[in-house]
Each structure stands twice: as C-alpha cells, then as structure tokens.
Amino acid sequence: MKRLDVTHRTTYRYSEPVAFGPHRMMLRPRDSHEMSLVNATLTTSLPAELTWTYDVFGNVICTAQFDGTTDELSIESHLQVERYAPTELSLFVTGADVAYPLAYSPDELTDLGACLTGSGEPFEPELEAWVQAVTARHAGGAAALLAGLCQEIHAGFTYETRFEESTRSPAETFGLRSGACRDFAAFFIGVARRLGFGARFVSGYLFDPSGGDSGLQGAGATHAWAEVFLPGAGWVEFDPTNGLIASDHLIRVAVTREPHQARPIAGSFVGTPGAFIGLWVGVTVESVESAAEAASVPELVAAPAQAATPPTEAVAA
Q1: Residue 76: which of 15, 166, 12 has the closest Cα?
Q2: Which DSSP helix (H) or strand (E) runs through 129?
C-alpha cells in the first residue's frame, strides 16, 4: 500500500478584474477496493459556494459559484490517498485469461452500451491492417491481446506535450504516430472497441516514485489512460503512454465514455473579450513517508486563500 499526497493547482490570469460563471470541477476521487480517500480539501482564491453532486458515470462533481471579481483565480485541490497494489491480471475467477473473442452476457452488453461504440466496425485500410497485425502478434486470451496493444502503442508512438484542449481521433494519432496521454488513451479505447471490448476513458494522476528519472510520462500534470471491462476481472486499467497495466502508479479521479467529458475544471468568465491571459496547471504527487503522521479526514471546504504562484508552464494531459 502507498500513501500519497496529491496537489493539483490551477491558476487563471486576466488583464483586468472579471466575474465568473459556474465552474464544474472533477477533482475528488471515489473510494474503491484499490484506493481509499484519506484527506481532501479544495481551496479557491475567490470566495465560492460549492454544490456537490454525481454525474451519470458516478463521478463526484463540485460546482462552484464565485462571489466577486479578480484578475487571478486560483483553485487548489489537495488529496491524500491510500493506493493498493492491484490483483494480477491472470488471477480471474477461473484462474486463467478470458477467452477472446469476448462473450459478454446480455446484461453486460446492455450495461456497457456506449462503451462498445464502434465494436466490430473496421477502420480505414492502413489503420485496420495495423490492428489486424497487432491481433495476430498477440493471439490468445483477451488480457494478452490488450496488454500487447498497450505495449505496442507505448513502444511505437512518441509522447508529446500538447496544450490544446482537443483530443485527436484514433486516425489522427495513428497517422502522426505521436500524441499526448489523452490521445493515446483515446486511440487505445478506439482500437479496443473495434475489437469488441467495452472501454472507457480515465482521468487522474500519475505517481512517479523516482521524481522524473524513471522515464514515466505524464507526471506533473493531469494524466489519462483507459479501462476495459473483462468478464471475471471487471474494469482493468491500461496506460499506453507508459505501458502500465493495472498499476498502483495510477490515481483514478474520474471515468467517462469520451475524453471531452473528463475535464478537471470547466467554467467561464464575464469580462472584456480578450481579457484572458492564460492558464497555468501544476500537479505534484508525493509519497507520505510516515502513515502515522497522516491527518484525519476533514470536510471539503471552499475558503478564501492567497492566490498561489503558478508553475512556469502550463501542462495538460
């Protein structure tokens, strides 16, 4: 078990004081058998009234109604979580890999619904040929095929940091053989659905115990990966950016059908057009050395605080 501290700071800057519309935030994870939320605080530099709800996927949603104007808005989320090592993929109910092609039950097919969009529909010829070659190279069970797909994306595609909010289509990512973690997650999901798997998008954070020397990509910002539903195993995590499978380095915050539904913070401002200067995002994930020193769980609050100094560059998953 790892106990981890996560700090996610977002700062918006404007050329003049502006007011704000409602901001929708997906920053608090839900407890599971793999991860327990020990401590969570949410602080804003401008006073706000918070409303807590769940979305259609069961994610925790916080809506902030801000009071007043400012030329700099800072939102800081601090989490402390306990992350447990996952069960090995081979340890299913049957003690073996899941047979491929999959045979979802009628209930599973209904419940997976849109997570199966594109199932069985071929891609354009070049991408389809690549998918068929990957399938042939990793013939066998479903987990072996998905693990092979994850590793081939990790080894054959180049990671890049992109500041645009959009996510590339599978065809675009394949054509460029490069992308950000959200592009690789969307590409993996598209291929998995093509092969008949129910797959969904995951947004969260990456823990790099080396502090940047391990070669892991995506630390220092929000991170994105995929989950695939396997009968007997449930939802299994695949991070094609780093070649990770069911890893305790992944800290899940939200799951959605498509990437655009998983933005950590979304909102608007009211002011002169062109007043927006920029957005700065910084994420730190650190191990808590002594679990005995961990604080007890407080309620989430939105309290006024001094605006934080932003990181030197914006980073986006």
Answers
A1: 12
A2: helix 125-137
- Distance in angstroms (rounded) separating the CA atoms of residues 304 and 44: 6
pLDDT tops 90 at residue 308: no
Q: Per CATH, which fold does 2-83+262-293 belong to?
A: Immunoglobulin-like (2.60.40)
What are 38-82's pLDDT values in tens digits? 999 999 999 999 999 999 999 999 999 999 999 999 999 999 999
| The residue to which tokens 């396997």 are assigned | 230
62's enclosing H/E stretch is strand 60-66
Within 10 angstroms of residue 101's Cβ, the number of other Cβ atoms is 10
What residue type is assigned to position 15 of the chain? Answer: S
In DSSP terms, 282 is beta-bridged to 9
Domain 106-259 fold: C8orf32 fold (3.10.620)
CATH 2.60.40.2250 region(s) of the chain? 2-83+262-293
d(Cα 93, Cα 286) in Å, to the nearest integer?
Answer: 34
d(CA 311, CA 10): 9
Identity at 147, one-letter amino acid code: A
